[in-house]
Amino acid sequence: MIRITELRLPISHAPEALEEAILKRLNIQAQDLVQFDVFKRSYDARKNVALAFIYTVDLSVKNEEKLLKRFANDVHVRLSPDTSYHFVANASQLKGANFVRPVVIGFGPCGIFAALVLAQMGFKPIVLERGKPVRGRTQDTWGLWRKNVLNPESNVQFGEGGAGTFSDGKLYSQIKDPKFYGRKVIAEFIKAGAPEEIRYVAKPHIGTFRLVGVVERMRQEIIELGGEIRFSQKVIGFDIQNEHIAGVKIEGHPDLPANHVVLALGHSARDTFEALHAAGVYMEAKPFSVGFRIEHPQSLIDKARLGPHAGNELIGAADYKLVHHAKNGRAVYSFCMCPGGTVVAATSEPNRVVTNGMSQYSRNERNANAGIVVGITPEDYPGGPLAGIEFQRTLESKAYELGGSTYEAPGQLVGDFLAGKASTDFGSVMPSYKPGVHLTDLADALPAYAIEAIREAIPAFEKQIKGFSMKDAVLTGIETRTSSPLRITRGSNFQSLNIKGLYPAGEGAGYAGGILSAGVDGIKVAEAVALDYLPQ
Known about the structure:
Blueprint: E1 2-10, H1 17-26, E2 33-44, E3 52-61, H2 64-70, E4 77-79, E5 103-105, H3 109-120, E6 126-129, H4 134-147, H5 181-191, H6 208-224, E7 228-231, E8 235-241, E9 244-250, E10 253-257, E11 261-263, H7 270-278, E12 284-285, E13 288-297, H8 298-306, E14 323-325, E15 331-338, E16 342-345, E17 355-358, E18 367-376, H9 387-402, E19 409-413, H10 414-419, E20 437-439, H11 448-462, E21 474-479, E22 486-487, E23 502-504, H12 515-533
């Protein structure tokens, strides 16, 4: 097949215009075009008065070899790469019928794809998930949002689908992906019920409610292929013998023998990190970010980003990506921007407040929200691999107190935050966070260097998005779970540096950031596990 890139068409183009553009670009007749598929569609908003779709198209033509020779010097007409997925092994190659089945700890995006690919290769994985199936977990999550009641083992962070289930469901990433594992992730989501358009739109997303059904269907496939998903099974320890994993200890259940264990923990499994550290597994502190959620009217963001095309259904709600390098040396950037979404309570520990962002597929809620976060490094929280966890806990406990000690979040209007005074009344922007927002002064919610950097960044962002520093915009605290505060370091074989058979993976291990990259890492680790079973 042939790939054409940079095909530009007006936003409101007719359906047949794309085929016409292909014929014109290649200078061929309609009868010479066998078929075509859209690989990617994005839009260029740099000149919002002339907004255009940009297509990448894969197609088949008659006399393909001759056509490619004709365009040999054109970088936008090339042979299409092979984006299909190829399994590296199959369990049928194992000598003997008996083998110790691989264990996957955690059933978020990384764990799901590690288990799914292992199951598809015939290895019948056993998945241990400390939380509940996704629908029961959803009820518990709403218990915090509506009734101020936290279940520490079933919430935004823990349970089937992981933290990604209660998010925007964004499926884009900036990772290098030369083997197109991301296409495998997308294809499996579509097979499980996600909308077909995620295959080609530039910034695909599924949305929270749709993710629930998608995750359930992926779980069912794993089971049908011989895998097991064991819910409410919390791993509390590890049996390590002669620097090799031999089994895992499960609260309230017998120990489970295992010599291949995938650690797909997510970034909030703090007690499991502590158990791994106690068992001597090598890990190190790593940078992460802390900050607030900011909410504006979505209409303001649409107008600033899309101009006269704001509200166009083909484009949908506008997003943004911002970064500012402050005078004090700190980087401030937007994180997990959720168009037409809500700010959600994301704590997993009692008497702490954590925020996150979430959108439905429609992205039609009143407000836009994003994390405005400041990068920090282990130098800011010295004390070893687990010091970042204690740093997070201190901030989250302070946020709980500032919010009134009821799981309400502390909040402040942007105008008051910039002026350095406490807020007392909301303006035109009403915050979406549930259980609620308690207005206060956020100056004490983060270290002074972070407050200073954010105060400098917001007016700077105004230069890129008109209205960003509007006085009535709302800041809600605090955002601390941007990524894992530690890395469970692994080697080129994807195994722990000092414990053979232990495979750190995904966000919790410090090797991913978001649904797509976590899914990709799960696939890579599944392949490494399979190849370790079949070293030949």
